[in-house]
Design brief:
The chain is α/β, with parallel strands linked by helices. It has one domain (5-226): P-loop containing nucleotide triphosphate hydrolases (Rossmann fold), CATH 3.40.50. It is built from twelve helices and six strands. The strands form two sheets. The chain has a four-stranded parallel sheet, with helices on both faces. The protein has a two-stranded antiparallel ribbon with strand order 5-6. A hairpin with a 4-residue loop joins β5 and β6. It starts with a helix and ends with a helix. 28% of the residues are buried.
């Protein structure tokens, strides 16, 4: 999230009060969904959503999302594809995934906390959510929040939140914007937020070439093994 003058003040006040919740995860790992659920479950607390994690954040409860990095990278590339199509005003302006483009995308993930996820996974103040577990099942998130925060989320609230942030609802918000470069400041939903695969797992197998998959698996072997993706 980008902080403006007001949110900076709110952040400082809540940090002093101890009512801050950190929502952290790698890009394209369901962070926006979990952020919105948290802020609706805890309207009196301040949820800071970001793709980096600092030492001064570690004293606050932290909710982490993670996803198979090959799918996160694919999702990031699909966003880039949409930007290219719209800015060149042509559906035929297909993005070619070159080695250079792939390496540049990897830098984005290296700079946005992908290895921090492993480092903090067992911290007592950390709640971990695996994207593949919750993408089609909001109950995973609700139940995890209930247990971690000792905060009951009744059926009525669950239904309201699920209706508010299911894929169709997110698409309605997203479609009001011209491109991914635009963002709804209240929900942090971007234009073109939902990709063609509707966020379903393992789309990298259809989008990337075999040698690119092999290359990424080698780089992220530690991550993939640690979180039981291979």
């Amino acid at each position: 999230m980008k902080f403006n003058f007001l949110t900076k003040i709110q952040s400082k006040i809540h940090r002093l009060r101890g009512t801050t919740i950190i929502q952290f995860g790698t890009p394209r790992s369901g962070t926006t969904l979990v952020y919105n659920i948290l802020k609706d479950v805890f309207p009196k607390r301040f949820v800071e959503s970001r793709h980096y994690y600092r030492k001064k954040d570690r004293r606050f409860p932290t909710v982490v999302t993670y996803r198979n990095p090959l799918d996160s990278i694919t999702s990031h590339l699909l966003v880039s594809q949409k930007i290219v199509e719209k800015e060149l005003n042509s559906d035929q302006s297909k993005l070619t995934v070159t080695k250079e483009l792939l390496d540049n995308t990897l830098k984005v993930f290296e700079e946005n906390g992908i290895w921090d996820v492993i480092e903090i996974q067992n911290n007592k103040n950390v709640l971990m959510f695996k994207y593949e577990d919750f993408v089609n099942n909001f109950e995973v998130i609700f139940n995890g929040i209930e247990n971690f925060f000792s905060e009951e989320i009744n059926i009525e609230k669950r239904n309201i939140i699920q209706n508010r942030y299911n894929i169709k609802s997110v698409e309605k918000i997203s479609n009001k914007m011209k491109s991914y470069r635009e963002i709804d400041t209240k929900t942090l939903i971007h234009g073109d937020h939902i990709n063609q695969n509707k966020g379903q797992p393992n789309f990298h197998k259809q989008f990337l070439k075999d040698d690119q998959i092999f290359y990424l698996k080698k780089i992220y072997n530690k991550f993939l093994v640690n979180f039981n993706y291979i």
